[in-house]
């Protein structure tokens, strides 16, 4: 059997296997109400992050979050990180934490005046992307990310490891609440792009074999700050 014939045979076999996994629609109860995500949104969100292949680290305050982030950067190991410019990351002291860990901080401000080739090379060299989120959805362990200057998609899509830092007030019960937050901004203030991230990058395109990290980060780590008030 030639290579091409064997390849086509494997595709036929994979297609046949795929036909065995049809979606069977169930009758929808039009009386069903809003379910939400339980009383403890932090616990539910962290559990769902773990369930979809990520790793959640629940910490009590900013100081513990700093320690956890430093540990994750050491474990990576990371030489450079592309980061959002975000108020939570500012309070976390990212500008001091990363250099102290031996990690070069790359953000919009630092990239703005670089020549295009250097800009591109800096991004491609980053081991880690560090972001917060616009909101976190407890029911599914999802991050809603709105693109804008300083909150570029590349931070959560390009590096092999994505670390997100989320605090309790950012967590909403479910998708309906997340969409309501977008709607509250008004049409004129909507971002050009909204990304919903649930787990590390996965694909099953090749012979129905689930592969992680092909189209984006293979590691998805979320630090969840449980305290509602985190001043320091």
Describe the structure.
The chain is an alpha/beta fold and 232 residues long. The N and C termini lie far apart (67 Å). Strand 10 and strand 11 form a beta hairpin. The chain has helices at 3-18, 41-51, 62-75, 87-92, 94-100, 108-111, 116-125, 154-157, 175-185, and strands spanning 55-59, 80-83, 104-106, 128-131, 135-137, 142-146, 161-167, 171-172, 194-197, 202-203, 211-212, 219-225. The strands form three sheets. It has a six-stranded parallel beta sheet, with helices on both faces. It has a four-stranded mixed beta sheet with strand order 8-5-6-9. A two-stranded antiparallel ribbon has the order 10-11. The model has no long low-confidence stretch (mean pLDDT 84). It is globular. It has a single domain (38-225), classed as 3-Layer(aba) Sandwich (Rossmann fold), CATH 3.40.50. The chain has nine helices and twelve strands.
Labels describing this entry:
single chain; 232 residues; alpha/beta; Rossmann fold; 6-stranded parallel β-sheet; 4-stranded mixed β-sheet; globular
Sequence-ordered SSE layout with sheet pairings:
Blueprint: H1 3-18, H2 41-51, E1 55-59, H3 62-75, E2 80-83, H4 87-92, H5 94-100, E3 104-106, H6 108-111, H7 116-125, E4 128-131, E5 135-137, E6 142-146, H8 154-157, E7 161-167, E8 171-172, H9 175-185, E9 194-197, E10 202-203, E11 211-212, E12 219-225
Parallel strand pairs: 1-12, 2-3, 2-4, 4-7, 5-8, 7-12
Antiparallel strand pairs: 5-6, 6-9, 10-11
Distance between the termini: 67 Å
Q: CATH architecture, please? A: 3-Layer(aba) Sandwich
Portion of residues in beta strands equals 15-25%
Q: Strand-and-helix sequence, N→C? A: HHEHEHHEHHEEEHEEHEEEE
Low-confidence spans: pLDDT under 50, at least 5 residues?
Answer: none
């Amino acid at each position: 059997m030639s290579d091409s014939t064997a390849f086509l045979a494997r595709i036929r076999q994979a297609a046949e296997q795929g036909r065995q996994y049809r979606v069977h629609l169930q009758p929808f109860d039009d009386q069903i109400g809003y379910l939400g995500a339980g009383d403890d949104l932090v616990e539910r969100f962290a559990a769902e992050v773990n369930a979809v292949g990520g790793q959640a680290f629940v910490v009590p305050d900013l100081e513990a979050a700093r320690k956890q982030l430093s540990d994750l950067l050491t474990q990576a190991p990371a030489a450079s990180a592309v980061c959002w410019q975000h108020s939570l990351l500012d309070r976390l002291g990212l500008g001091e934490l990363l250099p102290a860990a031996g990690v070069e901080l790359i953000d919009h401000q630092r990239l703005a005046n670089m020549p295009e080739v250097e800009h591109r090379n800096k991004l491609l060299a980053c081991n880690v992307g560090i972001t917060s989120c616009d909101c976190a959805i407890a029911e599914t362990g999802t991050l809603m990310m709105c693109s804008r200057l300083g909150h570029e998609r590349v931070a959560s899509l390009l590096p092999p490891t994505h670390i997100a830092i989320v605090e309790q007030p950012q967590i909403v019960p479910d998708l309906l609440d997340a969409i309501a937050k977008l709607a509250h901004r008004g049409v004129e203030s909507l971002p050009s792009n909204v990304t919903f991230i649930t787990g590390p990058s996965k694909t099953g395109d090749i012979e129905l074999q689930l592969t992680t990290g092909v189209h984006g980060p293979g590691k998805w780590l979320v630090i969840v700050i449980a305290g509602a008030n985190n001043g320091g």
